[in-house]
Amino acid sequence: METYQPVAAVALPPERQVSHPGTLAVVLCLLLTLSSLAMAQPPALRITNAPPALEDNIRALVQLPARSCDTEPRYLNRSLPDIRRQIIRAGRALGYYYLEEQSEFLEEEDCWGLQITVTPGDPVTVTTVDVEISSHPELFTQTLLDLPVKEGDQLNHALYERSKAELSSRAVELGFFSARFANSELRLDLQNNNASIHIDFDPGERFQFGRINLEPVDGLSEDFIRRYINFQSGSDYSTNSLVELRNILSESYYFSTVNVTPSLEQASGQSIPIQVGLELRPRRVYSTGIGATTDIGPRVRLDYEDRYLNQRGHRFDVKSSASPIQQALDANYTIPWHNPATEQLVLSGGLQREDTDTFISRTGKLGASYSFINRWLWRQTYFVNYQHDRSTINDTDEVTDLLIPGVSLSRTRADDALYPQKGWNLYGQLSGASDTLLSTDSFLQLHVGGKLINRLGPGRVLLRFEAGTTLTNNIHDLPVSIQYFTGGDQSVRGYKYQSLAPLDDDGEVVGGKHLLVGSAEYDFNILPNWKLAVFADAGNAFLDLNNIEMQKSVGIGVRWLSPLGPVRVDLASALDNDNKLRLHLTMGPDL
Question: How far apart are CA 173 and CA 357, in angstroms?
Fold first, then answer.
């Protein structure tokens, strides 16, 4: 049974020039009448003894007579037969086939009102849902499991129609464009107050993808663009495949506009051509930025990007940044590999200088990496870096050269990229060097970390951990970029950046072989786009896992959900002897 939401509309005539005093008087009277009607109390509709869903449906279907508030009851009562039919219809749509009602118009202080009293009776129950798919039933398995109408539920005609619509929608998604219902019945047994549903659904023949037509673009070759296409001509049609292709092309570095359209009017037999229209992004881009965190202070950034150096989609970028603590210059040459959407080779080089209260480090690096999405949907990266380090810690200078191969895995899942309510990320990296292979020292290092976000009560809980361990003869022979330090905005708040590490016999900070950091945070809304957070952090770097001394801090913070991502301001207290308070400012997504 179909239900319709009543809609009231007033049609106004086109504006005309008033050329007669009598016409002006009529217009003024009409305006005064409309104004008085607008100021009057509208007629009231009161419904008694109806479950919430039934009351909502009655309000949606019952149309009050379009009468002024001074209308006599005898004129209003002429509408009661239609109103009673509307109430019965609203009840049957939700399975109340034994509904009884009493309706009457009442005179009230400002206007008349309609009082409806219902006795719903027991609703009809769905005892059988029998759906037969005549061909390719395996493609509809999940749809059948998720049908809105289920055995044992109260009858709802809208859910029955929605179930049929979802079967049809699934058929269209899969390319069964001639699908039809050979039979669909909703059988009522009012003596036993139950209903049975029987549907015979015939998907018909499945269409296939035809020729994939690419509109040419100047900067990239057609062969390169076709490497993004995730299906072939002659394969079974799927709307999801078209959506996935559009997303893949949109998320690449090349295109500002992507249109992927099936040409149904050009279908030949069971084959549907696909049209792909593309517009390139600007090739060369310069960008600048200004930001700040309490770890590294104010920072300026200048970047350059060439998005397609050649027809094969090679890219080149240079990123530079400077702050009182860190200065960096990095260049990357990216070569899309066999599957350019997920697979790439990157040749890189860079310089970095870091000057903290704990150490001074200067690093030059050349490297290459190959990354792809593996079968378990993790980003897997193999890399090799050659780096030259000059570092100073406790007035001791170290110069090292290391050839560091390694492998890393990472994955992020979230229900929203900027403000996730539920999500997680994990990463791990194994790297090392050998003094027998172009390196001054040997080591093997494992570093892992992750974050979990989940809803809890009125807010979110955020859990974070980081851990690392190093196998080496003497950690202090390695550059400080390999040694472990912690403390600061992203680790143990309440302590200065990179200030936590083991102490030597003179009480001076030295780097650690091992790292362990954990954090728990809870935030909740206090105003639109503003959150209040409370948190506790603990962690440190160690020389010996048998002598672990965790440094702890607690704090409170606010988060502004800006259009570009969260901006966090935290006030943290270090729970040690001096209990210092530190202000922390950070920006960026939670995962």
Answer: 60
